[in-house]
Amino acid sequence: MGGMCATARLTAAGQRVLLVEKSAHLGGRCSSRERDGCTVTTGAIMIPMAKHSAIREAFDLLDAPMDMIELTGRMRYRLSHGDYDQATSGGGLRGLIAFAFRDDEAGAQQLFDDFIGALKDIPGDSHTFRDWLDEHTRNEDVKKLFQGFCAALMGTNTHEIPAGEFFRFLAYSSRGSRFGMAVNGNAGMMESLAGKIEERGSRILRQTNCREIIVENGAATGVSVMSRELGEVTYKCETVLSNLGPVRTVALAGGRDAFDDEYLAQLDAWPHEAPIFHVSFLTDQPLIDGFDGCMVFGNTKNFIYLEIPSFISPGHAPPGKYLHTAFGAPSDAANADLKAELENTCREIEENFPGKLDAAKFLVRARHSGSGPGMHRWAGHMMPVTTPISNLFNVGDGATPPGTIGTEGAASSAREAVKLIVSSTPAGK
Questions:
Q1: Parts of the chain belonging to CATH 3.90.660.50
Q2: Less CB within 10 Å around the terminal CB: N or C of the chain?
């Protein structure tokens, strides 16, 4: 999403761009694949679509259709004592807190007031959101609820995200945000953007692996690639934007010796990725009757999120079948047991819906980690889009601006980098 949105923005600004993609498919974690007649996401499933969204802006700049089904407000939360459907008429945060506190109206009101105060005066980043919760409440249910919220929507646990970053995200996401699911899958949405990019004169090379970012006299001047179509090719250019993640970018751009100590210290301070577990399966009957929204779980250790995409857009599964997409996260991303915790994610799905998966056909049971994680950095510990190497920029989920995350954060990094590039580069380059 970072590379695609950067390409769209630069192309719209009159630049000539070469987009290099290792896969045959565009979009990375915001794409999809066809499996057994189903359209299965590669990661992202709720896509920001408001006019002010950095994603929507990139599409609109090239008049590329997004073709979305809106899901804004269609959220359900589960704790051990029951389920809560978020009100679509407002008051979502107050209702969530009251749900966790059950009959303790005074406790719920006090914590809600504390949340409002933190949104007005954002806390610092020296302690975590879990620390903040511990300071403001003893209610374990509300801690479990926001653990599910953080893991599902932000890709990190409450003990991993700085308190300030959580509230920056809450403030950003509360400003008229709208979310949806791509009618024909994320791959179709990204292909619509690719078509507009190429119509405007930029070029996309698929199945092309970047071997080296060429640096001369402290400036990025080109890339060396291996293309399935063209073989080994070197391209000279004015600017390089990397969506590989900051660590891989350093490796390809001459290694650590090419970067200054300050940048490397920031890179090393929080080197953790945010892995995710992805489970998609097909059933004859839906796990939840008539449920066409998004469900977040706070009664679990690893299982955090569920959607039934074929309820939302029937074309995502064969007639009479129901495609389910579930996500999990490690309880401690810095010390994860990915195999065991993926297995536990699957167990917790079954525990929440006993007997309903007996005849399920599993299409995906994946651990997104390593070179292809859920996110390359934890929220609140991102690298900047700029680097010490002139004309070399990071975009994507390792360089998201404060308060943004996931696909929106990746697109926002593209918006930030392109502003810097366009302001200093003549059109037509």
A1: 90-173, 276-368
A2: C
CB atoms within 10 A of CB 208: 21
pLDDT digits (tens, 9 = 90+) for 127-147: 999 999 999 999 999 999 999
Which long-range contacts does 365-368 make (Cβ < 8 Å, 24+ apart)?
A: 365/278, 365/279, 366/277, 366/278, 366/279, 367/275, 367/276, 367/277, 367/278, 367/338, 367/339, 367/342, 368/29, 368/43, 368/275, 368/276, 368/277, 368/278
- The partner residues of 386 in beta bridges, in order of sequence, read 393
pLDDT tens digits, one per residue of 191-216: 999 999 999 999 999 999 999 999 99
As to burial, measured by CB atoms within 10 angstroms (0-12 exposed, 13-18 middle, 19+ buried), residue 211 is middle
Tell me if 152 sits within 8 A of 296, measured CB to CB: yes
Q: Which two tokens stand for residue 327?
A: 């996500």
CATH number listed for the domain at residues 90-173:
3.90.660.50
Phi–psi pair at 95, nearest 5 degrees: -65, -40
Among the listed residues 55, 47, 51, the one whose alpha carbon sits nearest the alpha carbon of residue 5: 55
Left, alpha or beta for 326 (phi > 0: left; psi -120 to 50: alpha)?
beta
Instruction: Please tell me the distance from the alpha carbon of residue 86 to that of residue 374, in angstroms, as a whole number.
Output: 26
pTM of the model: 0.95
What length is written for the chain? 429
